[in-house]
Design a protein that fits this description.
heterodimer, A: mainly alpha, 4 helices, B: alpha/beta
Chain lengths: ~100, ~450
């Protein structure tokens, strides 16, 4: 990403900061999750990467820029719309 | 053995903290013992005042550090409340000089411990130690310089490699008898380089009244390295030399966090180049002259350090102990645990050194496997390094993934750091193979196996 404008720089800084905070939380769990065989390290690396670039993280970044002190900052709502029963029955657990 | 309390017995250090608001105190000779018998026997009847003050100060900081519990060991749980606010009054023989060095004192302590320190210095009420007088200095070779010696692999290797060309005087700090025995065993296996009779040893002990029934109130002991450095510096000042050797491999000295939840000094900074630079600055302020702490292993991995040791001294390397828990262990024979990060780093380094059989006789208390959390954390770090170092711009990528490396880059060139960590990541697969771990399950399909990881020495 190029530092083409003040807002780009702000977004980049916010993204980097949130990535560090998320990384600290995720890494805290990692040794246990790998050691107990729940995941391989490669699987967790993929999961962590997907999480870092997910839509809720982008929204959290925008909210953080609006609340840089952290006061009033809220996590994005979970958007888990209720699915019809037939769709639920025909959908694999991982896809939910 | 002839012993003497380096600190006057009536020295009392008062301190306060934000977690224990009442005034507390440490009475030397009663609550804490700093036994300078090793120095007195070998070097001088009395230490120079600045050296004695340095030892008292370091031992006092260490005692306070052990006695004030951190609000939370994993500060991240509660918004980073791992740090403490500590205020202490230190009796010293030259309070003006120490007061002038207050900025250097605070900078060093805050970097080492992550705590906020407010140190003030008052004249000691004790009789004090008189200035140095020549004692047995004449029996030591000309040009001899002190080297910190823990009995671990790196300090033993430093002695073996550099003691052949430069006369070196081992300086140790011990807290128990087993540590003393290990150091003696290593020195006995370094003929022509060091002997137990020319070994300066300080013994530091705190009373149970101070440390609680479990032996220690606060376990992190981030100031422990300060006692070690102070012992070496005090010996150098007594010898009248301006250089102290401190041998630690570069990966261990820089000590990047294994996982991103390790913040600040949670990854110990005892041998970090900024720590030694901070100690140099303090000594310069206290003595008015230049002082150097020299680490000749700073750009080498541990495997490279082991490979550099001449073959006639491998028995000394095998006798050294790297385990974090062996010395304190109450198990008969003090076996190494085999699974702490220090044991694992040693095992990784030995496996890729030119002496892969070095530790083959060792029996560990625990078996290492894919389920060993410390190993997982170390491999997580190595795999993230490997990714960064294989990118088009290795240094920015490494600094982006491990921002604390920038502290080390003030003292070690970027390309030297990049090269050292590249070597380090390439050493891991050999050890992983020996454990039956598949590299691609840990480092991914692109895992770095561009060389065999072996060092020829």
């Amino acid at each position: 990403m190029q530092l083409s404008s003040p807002i780009t720089a702000t977004e980049l800084l916010a993204e980097r900061f949130l990535s560090r905070v998320a990384g600290a939380g995720l890494d805290h769990m990692l040794p246990t999750l790998v050691a107990d065989g729940s995941y391989t390290m490669v699987q967790l690396r993929d999961l962590f990467a997907r999480l870092s670039y997910s839509a809720p993280m982008a929204e959290l970044r925008d909210r953080f820029i609006r609340h840089p002190s952290g006061n009033g900052l809220r996590t994005p709502n979970r958007r888990t719309a209720v699915k019809p029963l037939r769709e639920l029955v025909d959908t694999g657990l991982e896809a939910l | 053995m002839k012993t003497v309390d380096v600190a006057p017995s009536d020295t009392v250090v008062r301190y306060w903290s934000d977690t224990t608001h009442d005034e507390h105190c440490i009475r030397f000779g009663d609550d804490a013992q700093l036994d300078g018998g090793g120095v007195v026997d070998l070097l001088s009847q009395h230490l120079p005042a600045v050296a004695a003050d340095l030892l008292d100060f370091a031992a006092s900081v260490y005692a306070i550090d052990r006695m004030v519990r951190r609000p939370s060991y994993f500060g991240y749980d509660n918004g980073g409340d791992w740090a403490r606010k500590l205020k202490a009054v230190f009796p010293v023989r030259d309070p003006d000089r120490w007061t002038q060095a207050q900025n250097e004192v605070h900078a060093l302590l805050e970097w080492l411990t992550d705590d906020l320190w407010e140190c003030t210095f008052v004249p000691t009420a004790g009789s004090g130690l008189r200035s140095g007088q020549n004692y047995l200095l004449s029996v030591l070779p000309n040009g001899i310089e002190p080297i910190l010696f823990s009995g671990g692999m790196d300090s033993s290797a430093g002695l073996a490699v550099h003691g052949q060309t430069q006369p070196l005087l081992p300086v140790s700090v011990v807290t128990n008898n087993h540590m003393t025995k290990v150091q003696r065993d290593v020195l006995d296996r370094l003929p022509g380089i060091a002997t137990e009779s020319r070994h300066v040893r300080f013994r530091v002990n705190l009373s149970r009244r101070l440390t609680g029934p479990s032996g220690q109130i606060e376990q992190t002991q981030r100031s422990r390295g300060l006692v070690f450095l102070a012992a070496g510096a005090a010996t150098a000042l007594t010898l009248g030399v301006d250089r102290l050797w401190f041998c630690e491999n570069g990966v261990g000295a820089v000590n990047l966090p294994y996982i991103r939840s390790q913040l600040g000094a949670q990854a110990t900074r005892s041998a970090h180049p900024r720590t030694t630079a901070g100690m140099e600055a303090l000594l310069r302020k206290l003595t008015g002259t230049r002082f150097t702490i020299h680490n000749p292993l700073l750009r080498m991995t541990k495997a490279e350090v082991i490979s550099a040791v001449p073959s006639e001294f491998t028995a000394a390397m095998a006798a050294s102990v790297s385990c974090d828990t062996s010395f304190a262990s109450r198990v008969k024979g003090h076996p190494r645990c085999g699974v702490c990060t220090s044991c694992l780093l040693r095992r990784q380094a030995v496996a890729s050194s030119r002496y892969p059989q070095l530790d083959e006789r060792l029996v560990y208390r625990e078996k290492v496997s894919a389920g060993t959390e410390q190993l997982v954390a170390m491999l997580w770090q190595a795999s993230r390094m490997s990714d960064a170092l294989r990118s088009d711009a290795p240094w920015p990528a490494l600094a982006g993934e491990f921002p604390t490396i920038l502290e080390a880059a003030r003292y070690i060139p970027n390309d030297a750091l990049t090269s050292m960590f590249t070597t380090y990541t390439r050493e891991w697969p050999l050890f992983m193979d020996s454990l039956g771990l598949r590299v691609d399950e840990w480092f991914g399909q692109d895992g770095d196996r561009t060389n065999d990881g072996h060092h020829s020495g």
